[in-house]
Structure formats: structure tokens, C-alpha cells
Amino acid sequence: MTMSKPARAVGIEISGVNLSYGSTHVLKDIALSIRPGEFFAFLGPSGCGKTTLLRLIAGFAQAQTGQVLLDGQDVAPLPPWKRDVGMVFQSYALWPHMTVAKNVAFGLEERRLPRGEIDRRVAQALELVGLSAFAERRPAQLSGGQQQRVAVARTIAIEPKVLLLDEPLSNLDAKMRVSVRRELRALQQRLGLTTIFVTHDQEEANTICDRIAVMDGGKIQQVGTPMELYEHPANLFVANFLGSANILDEKSGVPIPPGKRLVFRPQHAALSAPESAALRGPVTHREFLGATVRYGVRLGESEVLIETPFQSGSELRSVGDQVGVDLPPRRMLFLPA
């Protein structure tokens, strides 16, 4: 038994959205287009507005200006239960006194569907998340990963047009997070659901999402694929938030145009003999990471990180050694300060 895909994945269009709580401007002129069937992420630090934006789409928050279109329909006048949107909360919000099957059936019973239809959808949803054998257990008898899958099953059982995930992996340990996020991605692809995933963890967003909106200060800083954001950040915030980045000003001794910063990734530079390099300085620290070795190098008043591949038997630099730093021009980004 398998749950069929929605007849047609839907897109989401957000334009001119501003949302304030009192004098606090939480969302600032948000404009965004999410494609049908896309696995999309809102990524940013705590307080950036990503969860508020998700709640706005779900109907749990109301903007002062702007539109949210779901499949071309303005959903602002609609309450949450009429938006055909399913939301998985960070806490999972499972009923502790109900069995797994009853938890999954809850939303269907609230919609007063026929008993036979409810039983069919519950069985399908539990099979899809691999929990058919756990139908009569209660949440306290499940692991964190299993509880998370119950929350997903409860949401997909109502057959929403859009799946919203609010930091659903934050309560799992590191190993379980990797496993469950792969399950989520596989599930999303099988269902073909347009899905939005809120997280502050760049690794989570990079590994499972098609595109990402990086948010900070209530604004969308940049939208793109994980590779686009990493290789071509639009500003210093995006460069620094996605992966490790060296950000240098004129105090480093590197010639930099006025009003800009030089940005490069640790693996995009190389160490060389100091006498042959335009940039040179002492090694300040060294970290062995297995496949790579990370060095800190002092350049003027700045310190940069350089990662080099580790090969067995290769000679390592020591703290205090003078080294050269080679920067390929094509890997150098100059961004507004």
C-alpha cells in the first residue's frame, strides 16, 4: 500500500510582506517565489524571522502588508485549517495519552471524514514513514526519531498541498539527525510535496534542500541553491554564515579596493614557501581533521584559515613556521563592507 502523490504540486508566491509585533518589525518587505514540488529552506540565526515567516504561510501569524499566494490563491483571509497546509512543529506536539494511530487520525477526525477513509489514510501514512508496527504504542514508548516520524505521518495523512517543517530535527542527537533528514528528503521526493524547512543549521539545509533563503534581521539576504550561495555569496553575512570564510580588510596587508572586503574559503588558498609568495606570515595554530589539515596563518593584523589535503607521510607545518599564502584570483571575492 502506498500513498499517491498529490495531483499537482503547488507554488507559493510571497510579495511585499511586512509583519510587526508592536514596535518590533519582524519581517521586512519579504518577496519570495517557491516552485511547485520544491524542497525549500528558510535558513538563518535565531531571531532572524524564519519561523515567523513559516507561521505566516501556515496562518498562525498575520502580516500588516503584502500577499501570500498558495497555488495562485491569496490565503490571507483563510484560517489555518482551510489552507491545505500541514505543519510539523519543533516539539512534535503529540498527544501523550493517545496511541500512534490515534495521533495520526486526530486531524482527520477533526475534519469529520468517514471512518473507513480515516483508517485507510492512517495506515498509508504509517506505512510511508515505516511505523506500521508501532500503531498501538504511545509516544513515550518511542524514540525521538520515531516521534518525529509520527508527527510527519499525522501531517501527511491530511494530504496537504504544502508541508511546513519547523526545525523538526532539533530534538534529535547528531547521528539520528543525519538519518532522519535523509528519510525526510526521500519522503518529500516520493510525495512530490512542496516543502519548506526552517533551520539554523546550514549543513541540514545544504544536504536536503533544493534552494535556500538565507535570512537575517527580518530580511531575505539571498536566495539560491546551496552551491550558488557558497560559491557566490551576495554579502558578508551570507559568506560568513554558510561555511567557513576568511574575510580580510586592508589591515591584512592585502591590496583591497576601498569600501570592500576580500572573501575566500579556507580550501581555496594554498600554503607555499614564504620567499616566493606575495603574502606571508607565521603559522598560529594547526588542527588535524583527518582528510585535511587546518592551519591558522597571521597576515598583518588578521588571521586566516587555510585547509590543505592530508596525505600520509607528508610534512606538516609547525606553529611558528613562516609560510606563504597563495590566493588564486578566480577564488577571490570582493564584497561591500
Automatic annotation (TrEMBL):
UniProtKB keywords: ATP-binding, Nucleotide-binding, Transport
Protein origin, superkingdom: Bacteria
Family, similarity comment: Belongs to the ABC transporter superfamily.
Signal peptide span: none
GO molecular function terms listed in the Swiss-Prot or TrEMBL record: ATP binding
Annotated protein name in UniProt: ABC transporter ATP-binding protein
Keyword Nucleotide-binding: yes
Statement: the UniProt record of this protein carries the keyword Transport: yes
Pfam annotation, one family: ABC_tran
Organism: Reyranella aquatilis
Domain ABC transporter: 12-242
InterPro entries to which the protein is assigned, alphabetical: AAA+_ATPase (IPR003593), ABC_SmlMolc_Importer (IPR050093), ABC_transporter-like_ATP-bd (IPR003439), ABC_transporter-like_CS (IPR017871), Mo/tungstate-bd_C_term_dom (IPR008995), P-loop_NTPase (IPR027417), Transp-assoc_OB_typ2 (IPR013611)
